[in-house]
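ok so I'm stuck.
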Amino acid sequence: MTAETHSKPASAAGPVRYTTVAIILHWLIAAALIFQVILGWRADDGPKGAETFALFQLHKSIGITILVLSVARLLWKFTHKSPPAPAGQPTWEKLAASAVHVGFYVIMIGLPLTGWIIASTSRINIPTVLYGAIPWPHIPGLPELAAGAKDAWNDFGHIGHSVLVKFTYVLLALHLGAVAKHQILDRDEVFGHMAAGAKPGLKEPRLWLAAAGFAAVVAAGYLYTPAKAKAPQPAPAESSADDLALPDETPAAAAPVATTAGPAPQATPAESTEAPVDSALKDPVAWAVQKGSHLDFDLAWADTPIHGTFSRWTADILFSPEALDRSKLTVSVDLASAGTGDGQRDESLQGPDFFNTASSPKAIFTATKFRKTAEGRFVADGTLDLRGVKKPLSLPFSLKIDGDTAKARGVTTLDRTAFGVGQGEWASTDQIPGKIKVSFALTAKKK
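replied:
not stuck anymore, here's the structure
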């Protein structure tokens, strides 16, 4: 709330209340500011997971909204007269009311500005999209600064934001105390300036309505839960490759990091998924991946599971289970196509701290060595090139060939830290584990 509810009470010397526009702006800003304080507490104290990320995005949206409304309120104030102070009000009270009044404009404009500076100078270039729909730019010039200057501005933003938040607590206490004094002890018309028609005293229903509104906003701040982003679907139902099971497939958190070749668990004859071998497969065959095939990744952010998929990738396959020594595979993945169901998070994945798509737009897996581990079970031994880092990778997969159609499914885990995916604060594995599960299911036709 602003201090205007008690800084300029009514008398015959001026308007008896604020204008309707000023009153609407006052209560909107008051509600937004209180809700914003609660969101800030939750985001700071909560685990660094997907929900906290969503809270921060809403926090930014509300902050910019407060900035816009506060600038509008200030401009309106310059062109419209406010009610004067009550007759006989002590000079010290007038000065205190004016100081609190100015202080509220400082925080209502300063808090969003310092938050905007923080977002504009963050090492992770996460865009600001108001309420998930309206793009909002960074402050011009700040994102392009050299690292040292950028860090200095970021520190300034954090310190300024922290100081102004504490200043907000003081002003809110002074303001609410002053409202109570004018309404209950002085019994003057100050509250009526922002609540048209309100009378002095505890029995005034508008006073209790304002108190109930305050409590409702606080409760909403604590009870609000961001809607879970809709995760991309692994594949359309038409992709029957999902019917191929991997008996030794384990969750991402428990699966071993497959970076070196080694014998895979043997399947029993009952687990065989391979159809009789076509005599035409004595030589490697070129296969074309069909629509409905998918390439996915799974991880956990704090305790929140996140499922993602790459929507653009290609696979050049030359393979025959009867000619493993001459088979080849090259998979090229467009890293900018990574989708997790949250547009802002997906865009941040492209930044320099994660995939760094500006310098390394693609991840490429090549394999020229294949091993048969059981009927219908194989391992592709190759190399993964990600972010310019090349590491050996073994990919176990199941395969079923029926005439001209092949269906395959595979899963492995990657150590993201070995490829530099996660820089700065994200290099630590306390928030995002180092092991990331990668899986695929595809249907292919002979070319």
